[in-house]
From TrEMBL:
This is Zinc-ribbon domain-containing protein. Coiled coil: none annotated. Keywords: Membrane, Transmembrane, Transmembrane helix. InterPro entries: DUF3426 (IPR021834), Znf/thioredoxin_put (IPR011723). It holds the Pfam family DUF3426. It comes from the Bacteria. Signal peptide: none annotated. The chain crosses the membrane at residues 83-103. Residues 15-49 form the Zinc finger/thioredoxin putative domain.
Amino acid sequence: MTGVDWMPINLTKSMYSRCPHCDKQHEITVEHLRQRRGLLNCSACGKSFDTLRFLSEQEDAVLADDLHYQDKQISDRRPQTPAVWLVATSLMSVLLLAQVLYFEGYRLTMQPQIRVGLDKICSAIACRLPPYRNREEWSVSHSNLQVQTDGSYLFSAAVSNQALFTQIVPDLKLTLLNFNGQAIAGRMFSASEYLPKLTSLATEQTVEIRLAVVAPTAPIGGYTFNLL
């Protein structure tokens, strides 16, 4: 039994006690205290409570112990989160993350801001990310198409990887134009054809491309090329 600070009872005065469940105040008689040892069924909510615990000589008094008791009752009635719900929530979060990685994983690994963090994680847990590819982070300079003495053409260009990560060498499409700007010939070159000794370029690495092109029958007025 917990300790209670008992107060002296004045048998000549009316006493009052407040129900901790509904805050209804009751007038208490000495005879009631003797017969039921202080227990009372509240006429408002019907619940039983110990009148001695909340006894007062003033009719509208609100005891500090009463408020503390009510706060404790409310706290005890608050639903507690079971451990099983915490486990279930964690599993659902993991499942959702797995679905995102499964359906959007490759696209996410191609985002530079996300790739930086993923690289650090993979370095720590020894995993491998798919090769980085971003066509917008290649730069081309010094491109030229020159006629050779045998009538063929030599296409040359310098390609640089401007990404923060090593990139797979892209394929190349070269298109020859007539003097009206219309395409008269074109060909796709794989990376292994124009850079047979390289499969990837490190960040800020530059490499020169040199391709021999057989001249078409129509005169060449210009060219375009794209990295794919």
